# Entry
Amino acid sequence: MTASPAPDAREAERAFRPRAARATSVGDLAAAAAERGVRCDVAGTASARVTGVCMDSRAALPGDLYAAVPGANRHGADFSAQAAAAGATAILTDAGGLDRARSAGLPVLVVDSVRDAVGELAALVYGTDDAAPRLFGVTGTNGKTTTTYFIRSLLRALGETTGLIGTIEIVAGDTRIPSVLTTPEAPQLHALLARMRESGVGAAAMEVSSHSIDYRRVAGLRFAVSGFTNLTQDHLDLHGGMDEYFHAKARLFEAGRSRRAVVTVDDAWGRRMAAASGAETWTLATADAPDEGSADWRVRGIGADGLGHRFELHGPDGAILRARTGLPGLFNVSNAALAVLMVHAGGAGLGDLQAALDAADPLTVSVPGRMQVVCERPAGIVDFAHNPDALERAIDAVRGAHPDARVIVVFGATGQRDATKRPVMGAVAARRADVVIVTDDDPHDEEPAGIRAAVLRGAADAIAAEGLSSTVVEEHPRARAIAAAAAIARPEDTVLVAGRGHEVWQEVRGVNLPLDDRVELRDALAARGFATIADPSDSAAGGARE
Ligand SMILES: CC(=O)N[C@H]1[C@@H](OP(=O)(O)OP(=O)(O)OC[C@H]2O[C@@H](n3ccc(=O)[nH]c3=O)[C@H](O)[C@@H]2O)O[C@H](CO)[C@@H](O)[C@@H]1O[C@H](C)C(=O)N[C@@H](C)C(=O)N[C@H](CCC(=O)O)C(=O)O
Ligand SMILES: Nc1ncnc2c1ncn2[C@@H]1O[C@H](COP(=O)(O)OP(=O)(O)OP(=O)(O)O)[C@@H](O)[C@H]1O
# Structure
């Protein structure tokens, strides 16, 4: 067991501050915020000067406005003295935090909702409201990370200097760090954009999680283009139901938040999202759907090409774009098509786009832990699928062509998160795979045996009700489950290790244990004498790469 060296939120917050800071007085901030409809009362001296914004006292730097939010566990105002000791010059809080903030002896900006206000204030402090890099935001249950990597790669092929913000890493010019959140908190986002601007970044691709929309992390940001991948069951613990989950995502497409939108309309949720969008919207059909023909853009002519696919995009006035992606799975055609159209909607002309697609194969970028192949025969694949829809698609995507090919899937469900998806994932695996090895994901503080039992119950119920012939076993810890899968793999089989993708720490009762599925699978297959593929992005090779 090791103590946690996992990415640290505070370090991440400090790593991406702009080098040049301009000072704004508390009084001027309150006045500018009011002009944007955010009412701010000032308690204390209005002449104090602010050069940065933070939301965690442990990340405060001299000159910061410390945003003290009411949290699930504590009110941030409890940490006002720590922020002041670190050099913060003012505090932003709500009526509930006012007295505690005042006791730190700093001027206080009082607002109705700190989360609603902090994005706008950070935009003012960092000057990111109009001069930030062009932002390409991607939301949806699955495909956000992959699509942002595709967008960034395509923008680079078009000659742009780019940034990236998402689950795996944050990249701004020559600086990169592993991510803590998929979408950082608003103060960090605005600092990041200011830093990107300093580094000459012209465009950035960014994942926008539904949590971030609910928690107002994207407040004060304007997206040049926003894209929607899909909506399937996930995160119902936060949102309560699919309708609420839909409405959280829909807020990204409000007029004023996004200038343009590209919405995948392969199902009813997509069509509803397109109808709800207040931005100038293009619809994209990537799969056979009832009214697929009425979409503005359609994927046509999909054909197998190596591990991936080639395809065409057909648009208005006979426009056609030809593209390919080397990443396995038809869902990666959907992700790639969305990325191409978002870059087109962001201003790239059809001719330039086609030239970039032809010259650089930009949609064959390697995305860490997303359909990552560590061995070709047997196929050993590590993927991030951690909800029912993604798991089903991932299993289908990796099934080999040989008539005796089996899919052996290793996965578990996360502790303290949406428990309703556990039996559903068990049933999906029992239906689609030949051998199912149920193990642990990140149990967090929950008892792992109970999580496994819920997944196993779903699998057993599906087998009994549907007369399935799949084999289901329980094995833990996870490394032993991966070794068990490798031990029974025949050359024509596929071992799919799903759920944790690029992650290199497994959290068990507050302790982060080192665990990289790619390393475990590669080592287990190599031990049996199979030829494996090294990859510089995994933990055995030292981490993230270009
Ligand atoms: C459930 C959730 O989203 N919680 C977020 C929330 O934490 P919280 O309400 O528990 O905070 P708290 O512990 O009560 O503390 C209150 C405030 O005091 C501050 N504090 C606390 C201690 C201290 O010494 N000093 C200090 O300033 C905290 O930073 C916080 O602002 O506010 C914090 C920042 O203020 C967030 O960092 C934190 O995100 C946590 C880390 C998180 O894991 N969120 C996940 C669920 C998330 O957002 N995930 C999505 C992706 C989901 C997906 O697609 O899979 C994401 O975008 O990453
Ligand atoms: N368009 C898609 N439709 C369905 N499943 C997909 C799609 N794209 C990717 N997947 C599956 O979902 C997994 C996660 O993909 P990716 O990381 O790109 O999505 P994400 O939205 O960023 O996920 P998360 O929010 O959980 O980080 C992949 O490993 C793959 O199994």
